[in-house]
Structure prediction request, 360 residues.
Amino acid sequence: MISGGGTGGHIYPAIAIANAWVEKHPGSELLFVGALGKMEMQKVPEAGYRIIGLPVAGIQRRLTFENLKFPMKLLKSLRQASKIVSDFKPDAVVGVGGYASGPVLYAAQRKGIPTLVQEQNSYAGLTNKILSKKAQKICVAYPNMDKFFPSEGIAYTGNPVRKDILNLDGKREMGLAHFKLDSEKKTILVLGGSLGARTLNQAVLKDMKQLDKAGYQVLWQCGKFYFKEMLQESEEAALKGIHLREFIREMDLAYAVADVIVSRAGALSVSELSIVGKPVIFIPSPNVAEDHQTKNAMTYVNHQAAWMLKDADAVGQLKSKVDELLSDAQQMAELGLKIKELAKPNAATAIVEELELIIG
Prediction:
C-alpha cells in the first residue's frame, strides 16, 4: 500500500516506486490511498493503479471554517484508514508525504505492519518526523538527515524520477521539432510546477521583450492557475521567441533542448534536474513549510552545482542572471558536471530493495 500525495512532488515518486515494484514483482497487488479532491485521485488511476480517497485535509495558515472541521475530518480519516488497512492486509505500507500518509501509516504501525517513510526534501516534514519513530525504514534524498530521523533507520536512496529523463541522448532534435524551436538560438526553460509559480511568471513577463530582443527563446511552463492571464499577455506582445505552455508533458524533450533551466526548488524538480545535468538557476518558493525549497536549493549552491536567485529579487533580475550564466561557457559546463554528482538515478530500485528487506 502506498499513501500520500497532494502535489506532483509526492505523487510522481509514489508512482515511480509502484512501477519499480511491479516491474520486479509483477504478481503483486497494489493499493494507493490519497486525499479526496487532490491531484492523486486523478493521476494515480491514469498511471493504472487503484486508489481510495480519505476526507483528510491540512490546516490553513489563517483562521477559516475549514480549520474548524479539521478534527472531525482527521478522526473520520483515521477510522477509514484503519478499515482500509485491515481489509487490504498489506505486507508493507509506504508513506510519501501529504495529507493521507499520516492516518494510513499510523493505522499500519498500530497493527504491526512494516512501514517505510519516503522523505523528498532536505528539511523533513512534521508528519514524517512523527511517523519515522515507528517506521522500519526512512528513505531520504539528501545526506545528513539524521538531525530529523533515527540514524539507524535511514537509507540514502534519492528521489524516484520518471524513466524517460534518465537518458536524453539524441532527443534534442526531437525536442526542437516538437516545440517548434530554432536550433540556432539559446533556449531557456522556465518551470514553475504543474500549478504554476506567480513570481517566475511575473519575472518572464517583465523581461520577455528583452529576452526575445537578445536572441534567446524561452520555453515557458506557466502552470494551470496562470495560463489564461499569461496567454493574453504573451499574445499581446507577439514575440517569436516566447513559447508558452500551460503544462509540458514531454519533459524529457524539454530538458534535452534547454541550455539553461530556471526552476522552483521542489524536491522532485531538484532530483530530476540533478539527473539532467544542465545549468540551473533555482528560484525557491518562500511560501512552503519551513522554507524547505530554499534549503533544497542551498544544498546545491553549497556544492557549486547550481545558482540561486531569491524570489524577492527575481522580477527584474532574471535576464541579467541568464545573461551572466550564458556568457560563461566554463561556468555552465562546471554546473552541469557538479549537479550530476548529486544525482541518484536508481532511487526507485533502491527503495524497492529497502521494501523487500522490511517485508523479509
